[in-house]
Structures are given as structure tokens and as C-alpha cells.
């Protein structure tokens, strides 16, 4: 019998319809299930008709696994799906949120908080590196509008200003490819084997929670929600974003994972979004508190709200049984299941997954390529913000001369690739040290940049005597936070942990002569030295308000009471040195 759905010459609608009518309830529900790779054996994929697999933060086939090892892992899981009755390919997703950050040797771009080169080029490069490992789906971009920097995920947010976040959705055509001009609004687009399906997250209001508490309650009226947190979803949909991930947070006390009005009523019906909506990790479990306290309610509320794919991610039989039961007892209508499956199949057909379910080795050299690292270096240069330059405007300190007697490089973050990459790097929470992946630390960058006759001395936390005795021409001190992700980064005091502050203070003049915000630059620390020594000028502007004290928060540009140390949009500039 002619399998119309397998024929790429058939119109999309016909393929979906033909396949849907062949599917059993179990095969339909299976498509709505996303499981973690650690439970995704080929047998499980085949037996439960699982539609999707993910790598949780740091979930890798092996430490420092090569692109080829990733491809073999993804292909093995895929073969399980392809051996099922209807052979529907699974879609593998991963958090590539600042480059392909789970993967050893991937290019790690600045986190979103550090604005950079046009995000579209970063999207292009990220798509190539994700595909280099055989993966066709990235849970990015995070288009949170972080309104309180006490939020542990504030660094995942491009800005406190929705207009900047809207502009940064240009990463989506980078990841997915440019949507064809005449496309109908809301219809997703993914342009082939060098592009990936993207994911606008987390819908909606994730960056607006009370006190910045992760996964908490965003208390704001409708006007506020739609003018601050919603705008970038319009841009994402206009750019053909394939998927939208729901936020753990609540809006005025209602869990987003149970919010039918916003997920179905607004996103699907009003904005005509035709891709699929995916839950966050155990997102439906967390509809109740404590989480999982009433799983059948979680399933009914989450699927009923309009979530199409559930990131379970482990107890998939529990989810399948609960949902099957609720469909059989008419608690959840078949029409809801059909809507979800249709959306999931639409993405898989549109992105050519039926035609190309298995990855080949053709892109492995894209992973961590020099070209991508140069792009990341450029992004670092454009992300740095110069907040202070010399004791007075007419005596700027930066750029530093490359030729000088002796330079001290100090601080916890000067020789620590893990610290400069931050969370979501190799592991979920990030790492310290220089062994985690391949990149350039800031002290190495300084070595690479100065004149060969200039002596560079590194000391992580020098004492005052040492500094005085050495007669340094300059000192570059790099301090910051240790890496973290999500709720582990929530902080009520936002102070840099020791020995950071004391390293800045003890051996140096009371006030430092220059101050650069470098954010979380990623693997290409060379971009920092490029600016410090004048190969390029500082151009970056603050995309976030630099507050004076925590008790001013939340305080954002446009607020009536606005008394920052450095205002939104602030940034000193320097010229490149003619050398
Ligand atoms: C995490 C994050 C989400 C991520 C997902 C999968 O908890 O909230 O941003 O995409 O789980 O790792």
C-alpha cells in the first residue's frame, strides 16, 4: 500500500493527514513524549513510539565525546524509531544556548547578557555545530526579559529592554534559516540539513518573577505582560520559529504550564502559531506544589492547556498511561491529541526529518572551527562595556600599550576557562578550571597580545607586598562569580564572592583606574585582550541597568525612580590604536 506520507513530493497537509489516519492512539501519544537520552534505548523508542529525545544540561555520550561519537549515539536512537511500525523519525533536542555548549571543543559564544555581533551569524554558526553532532533541534533562544538581576538566569536574557530582546530574535533565522518571503504568518520554517529547529523560551514572563526568584510568580497586569514579556514572541513567530517552550513561572498566581488562555487562546489561536509547544523539564510535574503531587492533574492541566510535547523526561510510562487513560475516559478530547501530533509531525516534515533522519559526518569539522571562534571573538569584542577609563576623561588609561616593562594579571577569573564560560557549559552548572574544553583564557590572551619584550606576571590573588615590590606598569584584575545555572544562581545580595573584591582592593589604589564589564565571554577570551590593548575600540553599551545597591531592585530603564550607578545604554568608547 502506497505510504503517501513518505512521499516528499506530496503536499505537507496530505502527508500529515495520511500519516495521522494510520496512527493508533499509542503511536499518537508516543509522539508527544520527549525523554532524556539516558533512558532512550532503541527498544524503548520503537516500543513506545517516542517522538523526541533530549540531552539535559551536561548529558553527553562520553566525557569529551567527539562529534562522531555524538552522531553515532543520535543515529542509534533514531534507528530504534525508524524500526517502528510507521517509521516516524524522532527529533533530538539540546540546550545550545551560547554555542553548542554541552559539547567538548564547541565554540562557546558570550552568554546572552553580553550583546554581540549580529546574532544571525551566531545562529548560523551554532546551527552548523549542533548539526555537526547529528542534532537537529536547539532549545534556544531564551527570549526572557530579565527585570531583576537577582534572577539566577539573568545572564540568559539579552536585556531588560523588550526592544533589544526583539532585535535579538534575529538569531532564529540564523538557527533555522531565513523564512521564505511569502510564508503565511505563524507557519514554522527550518531550512534543511545545516539548520536546526529553534525554540523561543520560556513562554511567558519567565524574567519577571518576584525578587527574581527562579520559577516563581510574575505579578504584573496584562498591559505589563504584553508590553514587556510578550513582544519578542511576535518577532519569533514572524520569523517562523519552530517551537515554543513554556515557562515554569506563574502569571499572577497561575502556572504557565496550566495556562490555556495564553498557550492555546493567545499563542495558538490569536498569534496563529503552527509549530509545537514543548513543556520545560518536568514542567507539568511542577504545576502542583509539591511537584508531582497529583500527576494525573498535571497531565490533564498541561496537555489541556495546549502543550504538545512533554519533556517528561524519565518516567515516560507514567505519562503515557495517564494520558491514555484520560483520552479513553474523555477527560482529554481526541481533538487535543490530534492538534499536538499534527504540530509535531508538521515540524518533522517541514525540516526534512523523514527524508534525512540519520546524520552523516559531513559537518564534523564545523565543531569549534577557527571561523566560528573568530566570530565568537568578534562577539566578545562587541559585548564588552567600558564603564570607567582613567582618573579623568582627558587621561584615559585604556587602551594599554603593548610594549611596557611588566604587567600583572591577577584575579580568580584571569586563568579560568570554566569561569569565563559560566553555566550551561559542558555541564548544566558549568565548571571551573581550564580542562573542561578548548579555548583561550584572558591571561593567555594577554600573553598573545603584548610585545614580546613585555613581561607578563600572573598571580591569582597577590598580596600587597608582592605587588609593591614588583614595580608593575599595569595590573589587569579579572574577577566575577563562579558558574551556575537556574535557581542555583538566584542571589539576594549580588555580591562578588571573595577573594574577588579583596583582590581588587588590597594591592591597588583605593579606586581602580578603569572598569570593564566582560560578562560571560565564553571560550574566546582573546576578544578581551583585543580591546584592552587597542587592536579594536570599545563600542559596547549596557543592555542592563547597573544598579547602585540591591535594595534599589527591581529598577529598570524607564522606571520613575531611576538612580543607577551606570544607566542602561551607558558605555565609554575608545579608538583602535594605529600600530
Ligand atoms: C531546564 C531549563 C530549560 C532547558 C530544559 C532542558 O530546566 O529550564 O531552559 O531547556 O530544562 O535542559
Automatic annotation (TrEMBL):
Its EC number is 3.2.1.21. InterPro entries: Cellulose_Degrad_GH3, GH, Glyco_hydro_3_C, Glyco_hydro_3_C_sf, Glyco_hydro_3_N, Glyco_hydro_3_N_sf. Coiled coil: none annotated. Pfam families: Glyco_hydro_3 (PF00933), Glyco_hydro_3_C (PF01915). Residues 24-347 form the Glycoside hydrolase family 3 N-terminal domain. The keyword Electron transport does not apply. Gene3D superfamilies: Glycoside hydrolase family 3 C-terminal domain, Glycoside hydrolase, family 3, N-terminal domain. Residues 384-505, 506-573 form the Glycoside hydrolase family 3 C-terminal domain. It comes from the Eukaryota. One of its GO terms (biological process) is glucan catabolic process. Keywords: Glycosidase, Hydrolase, Signal. It catalyses: Hydrolysis of terminal, non-reducing beta-D-glucosyl residues with release of beta-D-glucose. One of its GO terms (molecular function) is beta-glucosidase activity. Belongs to the glycosyl hydrolase 3 family. This is beta-glucosidase.
